[in-house]
């Protein structure tokens, strides 16, 4: 079986990003074993960060614990020791043997099993700049600093990303300007050019611009080309499952030469495209 890392088409390579650390659709999110596998193979892997009560970050997507873990309440009100005692849930909500990881726990795993030189771990910060304080920023830098060559920090708040990244030399950054009803607003105004121009100005140091694949495909112009012309790369998110409709979308994204496609099923997507 070919490892689901990238797709070459028309002389352009597009990486398949393992969304929330998933290699295949049946995988639960954020398990250490799968994240390490991806990094060992040289994949592009994504995890999410939310702040906990002890001024560090947990590897979780939601600001509350109820859906993803065996805990309850707000992550922000839960300390590090309590978080480490919680178990993750699978896609059906069943508790797993795997426990919640903190950012420093994940970095310790990477210390024990160094990544492939081509691996890239995206840290997607799910909060805004108002959530940050000096202690949280320092904790982030201490954990990520030794691994910054294999990481990229992203988020929807460019100032929060800047504050975290400036304390961590060598850490690349990305920016996601898509939120709420962005697609509906763009379909109403038609101002895709203004949308992309604003994103590029807002995050001048961002290596990646992360765009909803629906926005990329709905645009009345080649916004991927606009990003490329500014020396940046495009990640199109998120292909949830492999269907005839999603394969058609992926074919269009590949024709537009996006640099990365975020998907919950990298293995299934690569197999479907190969067949």
UniProtKB/TrEMBL annotation:
Record protein name field: Glycerophosphodiester phosphodiesterase
Domain of life: Bacteria
InterPro entries in alphabetical order: GP_PDE_dom, PLC-like_Pdiesterase_TIM-brl
Organism: Devosia albogilva
UniProt domain GP-PDE: residue ranges: 4-273
């Amino acid at each position: 079986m070919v490892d689901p890392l990238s797709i070459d088409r028309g002389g352009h390579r597009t990486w398949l990003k393992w969304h929330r650390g998933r290699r295949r659709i049946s995988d639960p999110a954020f398990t250490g074993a799968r994240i390490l596998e991806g990094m060992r193979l040289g994949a592009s892997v994504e995890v999410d960060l939310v702040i906990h009560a002890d001024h560090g970050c947990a590897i979780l997507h939601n600001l509350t614990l109820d859906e993803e873990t065996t805990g309850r309440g707000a992550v922000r009100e839960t300390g590090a020791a309590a978080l480490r005692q919680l178990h993750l849930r699978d896609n059906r909500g069943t508790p797993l043997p795997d426990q919640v990881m903190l950012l420093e726990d994940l970095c310790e795993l990477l210390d024990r099993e160094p990544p492939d030189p081509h691996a890239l771990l995206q840290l997607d910060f799910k909060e805004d700049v108002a959530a940050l304080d000096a202690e949280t920023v320092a904790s982030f830098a201490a954990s990520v600093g030794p691994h910054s060559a294999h990481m990229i920090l992203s988020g929807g708040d460019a100032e929060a990303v800047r504050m975290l990244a400036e304390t961590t030399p060598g850490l690349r950054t990305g920016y996601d300007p898509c939120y709420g009803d962005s697609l509906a607003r763009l379909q109403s105004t038609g101002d895709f050019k203004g949308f992309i121009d604003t994103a590029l100005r807002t995050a001048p140091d961002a290596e990646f611009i992360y765009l909803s694949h629906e926005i990329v495909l709905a645009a009345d112009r080649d916004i991927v080309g606009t990003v490329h012309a500014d020396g940046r790369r495009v990640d199109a998110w998120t292909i949830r499952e492999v269907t005839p409709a999603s394969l058609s979308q992926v074919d269009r994204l590949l024709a537009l030469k996006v640099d990365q496609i975020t998907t919950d099923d990298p293995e299934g997507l690569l197999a479907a495209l190969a067949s």
